[in-house]
Amino acid sequence: MKQRDFVTILQERAREQKKAMDAVPFPKIFAFVIEWLSDHPWRFLIPLAFIISLALREIIGHGYTNFVLLLFRSL
Questions:
Q1: Which of 4, 19, 64, 74 gives 57 a disulfide partner, CB atoms 3.0 to 4.6 angstroms apart?
Q2: Count of C-beta atoms within a 10 Å radius of residue 25
Q3: In which region does residue 61 sit, left (phi positive, over 0), alpha (psi from -120 to 50) or beta (all else)?
Q4: What is the model's pTM?
Q5: Any idea of the CA torsion for 9, 11, 15, 20, to the nearest 10 degrees?
Q6: Which residue segment(s) compose the domain that 51 sits in?
Q7: Do 52 and 32 belong to one domain?
Q8: Distance between CA atoms of 8 and 16, rounded to whole angstroms?
Q9: Sequential DSSP letters for 5-31
Q10: What is the per-residue pLDDT across 7-52, written as a single tens digit (0 to 9) for each?
Q11: Phi-psi region of 26 (alpha: psi -120 to 50; beta: other; left: phi over 0)
């Protein structure tokens, strides 16, 4: 493939990606969230895991610890 063909294909894909981003509602917010999560996923995943753990502990009660141990024992 020649360099000119390669650049043409890249430009075409960039135009398609721009059309797709323009079709997304709130494209600036979407782009910010994607960039933020791709650089620092731990900022989101660790608090989310903590919140889910607290919610499950509240729902299941004292059996939560046994439930988690049962999940990991079955793996």
A1: 64
A2: 6
A3: left
A4: 0.46
A5: 60
A6: 41-75
A7: no
A8: 12
A9: HHHHHHHHHHHHHHHHHHHSSSHHHHH
A10: 999 999 999 988 887 777 777 777 777 777 777 778 788 889 999 9
A11: left
